[in-house]
Each structure stands twice: as C-alpha cells, then as structure tokens.
C-alpha cells in the first residue's frame, strides 16, 4: 500500500494553452506544495485485499526462495552447507561479489555468536541480507518541485510503459495531477500504448505523430508548468545500452528537459526486468554512466529464479530501488522494502 503525508487543498487556477496533446479532461492546478510527500510502505492503515502484499511477494519470489530456504532444513553447519549456499546465491544471480561478501560475513557471525542451529544461521543470513539491501530502500518523494519531472528509461520488454501507467494511477490516487509524454518515438507501438494508459487513467498525453523525442519532452515540461500539473512523466525510447547512438540521444533528451525547466529531470529512473539477472546489472551500469540514475524500478520478479540480482546491485552499483513489481495488476507494483523482500526471499 502507499502512504502519504497530506497536503492542504488549494484552489484551482486558470492555465494557459498547452502544446498539442491527446485530449483528456482538465486536471486541477496545484500551487507550490508546502512539503514533500513520500511513498512509504503502510503497515496497518487500510484493510488488506484478499491476498496481502506479503503473500503475493512470497509467491512471486518462490522460485528464488526455493533454492535458498531448503538448504537450512535439518542442515548441519559445515563446509557443505556453505558450498551449497554459495551455489544457490550464484544461481539466484546475486553475483560473485555479493555472494562472497555474504558468505564471509555469515561465517564470521556463526563463529562469533557460536551459532549451532540451522534456523539461527538462516536468521543470521536474513539480517545480513537486510543490511546489504537497506541502502537501496528510499522513499519516493513527491512535491519537491512544481511540476516534478520524471524521465523514465529502459530496454524494450522491461515493462517500462506499463509501469508508467501503473505509477500514474497510484499518484492520482494520492491527489497528484499527472501528465504523460510519449517520448518513445523509436518503437512503433509505444506512442499508442501510452495513449491507451492515458485514456484509462484520464490523463493527458503529450505526443507528436513522428516527433523528435527531445522536442516532445520539452513540450511536455512546458505544458506541465502551464497547467500547474504536479507530475510530468516522460517515456523515452527503449534501447540496449550497446546502441551507443541511441544512448547519446537519451543524453540529449535529458539536456533538453533541463532547458525546459531548471534542475529537471528531478528523477531519472530505469525500469529493469528482474528476469534478466546479471544482464540487468549491466543495464544499471550503462544507464547510470550515461544518465546518472536517481532510482530503479524492478519489474517481473514473479516467476523468476533470479531475485538475488538486488544483492548484486547493492554491492556493485547501489542505485535506490523505488519500486518492485510482481505481477500485472496495479497493486502488484509496490515500494521496495528491504526487510519485506528478505522475509519473502528466505520464507
């Protein structure tokens, strides 16, 4: 669930005309917010749905969890256990660095605390994993800028456009007016896909028939400022980090957004597919080098045996993970919480 600090209501203001856009009912304008808002995991505010988030998270991570949790069932604390744990962590795509770090720390803890029971060792591993992943946990703050401009990137197939639609819906649910920009002019169906999400969420989509992505992005920022919109989300073309000419185009888009509004984009996010394992880590490195990422959204963690990739990211390139996705439904995209994630991973 999402939890926010409340904002005081403000009277809507008249807005000047905006650039050409897919029409949608006007959204109320918003004055300069008094204080930032933040997505936080809510523990006991609203009634739980039929299947709670933790239940869905455990189910989504079950393939990764199965290879790890079974090791501690009636196990002896010996070299064989450590060898099996090393293999399981590597299979989960935790990577060599994170795997060695966790094993060394676990061996020290077992020795220092004189742990003799497999359940105690499992609990110790949980705590070490939480400590490793904790730096990735960061609330997503809203209201710091008017509008808050988000540039969202990712390779084709990562679920980028769908994630934008889900985020827009969540933000609307918490009183934020949203404007979308169809800056992915590289993929034929991307514009249409974003427009469908715009219609579904009753959100305006700034778009051009065959426009330059930087121009579309600039228009969207200007429109967001004119309308008094709270959040402008800019979809950018999916591309592989090895496509250097396209990566250069992404840098150009970011520069042009900055010309549209000083300090923008305020969030530069990368959507990555949790199924891709170590390839996801390569994407984080490449996009972070090019764009200086402020956060990650990891999708499709359900059904993958590669949930250990977060440990690899934490060790090699600790970019904050704002959200994780474990399904197709709106509620299946939730803020990342290290303790919850580890509990589901080592259930």
From TrEMBL:
Keyword Flavoprotein: no
GO function term, MF aspect, one: signal recognition particle binding
Domain of life: Bacteria
Keyword match Isomerase: no
InterPro entries given in the database record: AAA+_ATPase, P-loop_NTPase, Signal_recog_particl_SRP54_hlx, SR_rcpt_FtsY, SRP/SRP_N, SRP54_GTPase_dom, SRP54_N_sf
Chain intervals with Low complexity compositional bias: 11-33
Protein keywords: Cell membrane, Cytoplasm, GTP-binding, Hydrolase, Membrane, Nucleotide-binding, Receptor
Catalytic activity: GTP + H2O = GDP + phosphate + H(+)
Subunit (UniProt): Part of the signal recognition particle protein translocation system, which is composed of SRP and FtsY. SRP is a ribonucleoprotein composed of Ffh and a 4.5S RNA molecule.
Protein name per Swiss-Prot or TrEMBL: Signal recognition particle receptor FtsY
Originating species: Massilia eburnea
Taxonomic path: Bacteria, Pseudomonadati, Pseudomonadota, Betaproteobacteria, Burkholderiales
């Amino acid at each position: 669930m999402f939890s926010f600090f409340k904002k005081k209501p403000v009277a809507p203001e008249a807005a000047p005309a905006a650039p050409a856009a897919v029409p949608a009912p006007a959204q109320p304008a918003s004055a300069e917010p008094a204080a930032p808002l933040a997505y936080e995991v809510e523990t006991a505010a609203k009634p739980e749905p039929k299947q709670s988030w933790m239940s869905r998270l455990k189910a989504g991570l079950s393939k990764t969890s199965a290879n790890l949790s079974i090791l501690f069932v009636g196990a002896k604390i010996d070299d064989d256990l450590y060898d099996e744990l090393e293999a399981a962590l590597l299979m989960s795509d935790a990577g060599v660095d994170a795997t060695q770090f966790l094993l060394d720390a676990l061996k020290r803890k077992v020795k220092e605390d004189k742990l003799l029971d497999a359940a105690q060792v499992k609990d110790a591993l949980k705590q070490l994993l939480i400590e490793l992943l904790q730096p990735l946990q960061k609330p997503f703050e809203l209201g710091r800028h008017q509008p808050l401009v988000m540039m969202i990137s990712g390779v084709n197939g990562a679920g980028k456009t769908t994630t934008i639609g889900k985020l827009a819906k969540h933000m609307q649910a918490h009183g934020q007016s949203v404007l979308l920009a169809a800056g992915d002019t590289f993929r034929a169906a991307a514009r249409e896909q974003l427009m469908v999400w715009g219609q579904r969420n009753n959100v305006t989509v700034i778009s051009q028939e065959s426009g330059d992505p930087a121009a579309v992005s600039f228009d969207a920022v200007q429109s967001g400022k004119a309308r008094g919109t709270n959040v402008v989300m800019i979809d950018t073309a999916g591309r592989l980090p090895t496509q250097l000419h396209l990566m250069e185009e992404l840098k150009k888009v970011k520069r042009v957004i900055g010309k549209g509004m000083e300090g923008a984009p305020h969030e530069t996010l990368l959507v990555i597919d949790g199924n891709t394992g170590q390839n996801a880590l390569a994407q984080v490195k490449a996009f972070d080098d090019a764009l200086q990422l402020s956060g990650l959204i990891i999708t499709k963690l359900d059904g993958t045996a590669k949930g250990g990739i977060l440990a690899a990211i934490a060790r090699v390139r600790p970019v904050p993970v704002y959200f994780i996705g474990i399904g197709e439904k709106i509620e299946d995209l939730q803020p990342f919480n290290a303790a919850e994630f580890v509990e589901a991973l080592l259930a």
